[in-house]
Design brief:
320 residues; alpha+beta; Beta Polymerase, domain 2; Poly(a)-polymerase, middle domain; 2 domains; 5-stranded mixed β-sheet; 3-stranded mixed β-sheet; 39% helix; RNA uridylyltransferase activity
Length: 320
Amino acid sequence: MSIFESLVPSDEEISKQKQLLATLSRLINKEWPNSKLYLYGSCANSFGFSNSDIDLCLSIDEKEMSKVDIILKLAHILHAGNLRNIQALTRARVPIVKLMDPNTGLSCDICVNNLLAVVNTKLLRDYSQIDKRLRPLAFIVKHWAKSRCVNETYQGTLSSYAYVIMCIHYLQSQRILPCLQEMEPTYYVTVDNNICAYFDQVDKLNGFGAQCKDTLSRLLWGFFRYWAYAHNYTKDVISIRTGRSISKNMKDWTRRIGNDRHLICIEDPFETSHDLGRVVDNRSIWALREEFERAAEILHLDPNPNITLFEPYVPSEAET
C-alpha cells in the first residue's frame, strides 16, 4: 500500500489538471462555442500515476473541416493563448496537438473526436469505484511492468491500458468485480458504430466482492500466477465485456492477419474487433511470460518481495 500511495497523484496535481482543462476550454470555446473538451485516459480513469502527462479529447461537430485542419487550427488558437512547446502532429496514427502550460507546468496532448477513448475512460473509472482493491492492484502491476520494461507497445509488449483490463478480468474471475456490460444498461451511447452500453450505477454495487477476503498482496500473487500458469494463450481471449475468457476461434483470432499476431488476446471492451495484445510478437510473448513467472515465484517464495519484484530489468549481453 505504501508503494501504491507513492504513485497516486496528489490533490494539488489533480487540481492543476482541472485548472488546465478549464483554461483550454475557455480558449477553444471562443472559436468553437459548441465544442467540449474531455479529460480521458489514465489521468481521468483513476489509474494514472503522479506526474503523468494528461490527455484531452476535443469533441467537435465541424463537418466543413478535416481532422488535420482542425488540429492545425487548434494549434493556432493555442499559440494565441500563451501556451508553450506547441506541436501539431498531423501525420500520427491519431493526430494530436502537444503543448505545455507554463501556469501549471503540465504537458498535454489533445486529439479530436476520439470519443471511444472517453467512454472507455468512464468504464474503467466506474469499475474502480466498485471494489477498493482494484486501483492499488492495477497501480502495482503498472509499476512492475514499467520497472521490468514490459509496458511499451512499440517494443512488442503491452500498454498500461491493457494491464488495467487484465486486472479487471482477473478480479472478475475471482467474483470480486461484476461484469457491467452483461447487466441491464443504465448508460448507452453509440460511438463510431460501436454500441457502448453498460450498468453504470456502481454505487449500488458496493460490497459486491465482499465475500472474497483476499488481501492486495494475495491478489497480486494470484494475478501473476494466473498469467504465468493458468491462462490458455493458445485458445483464450480475455473479455471484460463478457466477464470471462472467450474462444479465439469465435473471434477468428487464431492466425496472423497483417501486423496483428494474436499471441496474447485482450479484447477491447467496446471496440471488440481490437485486440490490445496484437503488437506482441514471437520474441516478446516469451519475455512477458517469463516476467509473469518470475513475479509469481518472487511473491510466493521471496521473504522481501517488495525489493526483488521491482528490480529494474537489465538486458543480457545477447540483447544489447
